[in-house]
Design a protein that fits this description.
This protein is α+β, with helices and mostly antiparallel strands and 170 residues long. It has helices spanning 3-10, 127-133, 149-158, and strands at 27-30, 33-39, 49-55, 64-66, 70-77, 79-84, 87-92, 96-99, 105-108, 115-122, 135-136, 164-166. The protein has a single domain (21-163), classed as Jelly Rolls, CATH 2.60.120. Strand 6 and strand 7 form a beta hairpin. The protein is globular, with a radius of gyration of 17 Å.
Amino acid sequence: MTLRTQATASTPHANPAKHVPTGTGTAYWGPGGLMTFLITSKESGGAIFVSEISVAPGRGTVPHIHRQEDESFRLLEGTLTMQVGGNTITASAGDFILLPRGIAHSFKNTGDREAKALVIITPGGLEGYFAEVFEPATNHSAVPPSDTKEMMDRARAVAPRYGLELLPPA
């Protein structure tokens, strides 16, 4: 056993291992589609928030800026067209995109089938915004509900508390 292995083996873990089986996990319906929480900041000691998003064709987010965290996407299925700081990125399955804090961005599923992506936000904490603004999803396979004025009003009201700036549609 190496010195590193010994130190790791004897160090207690503040956050235990976690397994989220497919189709489970706390989930919410939002403007982008279905967001399933995989690991929260509470579970990671504040380090990270990871979710999986499923975005139906034609759905997406309004342009916005994260002031406190970086956001990364690993596209698992489908196609997302992202507007990033005035540039357009068309991402397909297998692509990785890093969106550093402070850059305006949005995305839309411009394909003809559902897009899925792993979304990694560092540091964690932004999941509180989604839990406050989005609608709880009790059925992960339901048809996505339409965006509502009430949700967008909530989003605008809550965003400043989380360091988000929602921009007018492009």
